[in-house]
Amino acid sequence: MSVHSKYTSALNYRTLISIIISFIATWLSYKYDFRFNLDLTLISVAVVFPLVFTLGSAFQRRDKSLEHLSRTKAALATIYYSFTQARDMPEKTKDEIYEGIKKIKISLITFLSSKSNDRTDLNKNIGNIKAMVEEHKESLGRGLSLRVYRYMRDVLMGIENTISIKFHRTPQSIRAYCELFIYVFPFYYAPTLMYNIETGGGEIISSSGEIFSTVADGAYHPFVVYGLNVIISFILISLFNVQEQIEDPFDNEGLDDVMLDMYKLDYWNKSIKNL
Question: What is the pTM of this model?
Answer without folding.
Answer: 0.75
